[in-house]
Amino acid sequence: MPAVVRATSEFFDQLTNDLLALRVLAQQRFRPLNAEELNRRPGPSRWSAGQCLEHLNIVGGYYLPSIAKRIAKAQARGSKPTPTVKQGFFGGRFVNAMRTPASEKAYTTPQRYAPTGTRLPRTVAEVFSRQLDELLRLVLLARQVNANAVLIPNAVFPLLLLRLADQLEFLVVHIQRHVAQAEAVLAGNVVSNKASAA
Asked: Is the Cβ–Cβ distance between 162 and 91 less than 8 Å?
């Protein structure tokens, strides 16, 4: 499968628009939830909406500081953006895997990235909103460096380094997947008995 090459400005515009849409949804849909709505589970082995958000917060807690540090190092080296971003082999596979709806393909989440509780406080939605803001900030900064050359360690396989562009796209698609899962739970639709891998 040939590598996907996209104009840098269009690539980052799309990520920004996707994150802005997620931010609006988080404010309107998740922040107003009460504890009961947040913690309602469709079944004993299925995640609540709050657990979906906590999983995203845990994954964000790993990636966001790592990405910020590596962008700062690239800026200090004088890294400049390139006209295009090119998808790496592994990055493309991870992003495409996340694009498959959870209802069609479920992945098992490594234990260290799984939700830690079944009675989560409402602050889980606030943390999620703050992480979306931070990811938006990082996408803005990533426009200013060579997103093909900055490498980010993978959360599950730390020796595997993904291009910054691939990692940012993966995070956005991963968030979209779990937000859809959380919305399905809130709507009373059962999506999957497993959660997607971090």
From this structure: yes
Angle at which helices 123-142 and 8-25 pack, to 10 degrees? 170
- Which residues, 6 or more positions from 65, have their beta carbon under 8 angstroms from its beta carbon? none
pTM (predicted TM-score): 0.91
- Please answer whether residues 66 and 152 qualify as being in contact, where contact means their C-beta atoms are separated by less than 8 angstroms: yes
CA-closest candidate to residue 71, choices 111, 192, 63, 159: 63
Token pair, residue 187, equals: 């709507």
How would you write the pLDDT of the chain (198 residues) with one tens digit per residue?
A: 567 899 999 999 999 999 999 999 999 999 999 999 999 998 888 899 999 999 999 999 999 999 999 999 999 999 999 999 999 999 999 999 898 877 777 888 888 899 988 899 999 999 999 999 999 999 999 999 999 999 999 988 889 999 999 999 999 999 999 999 999 999 986 544 344 444
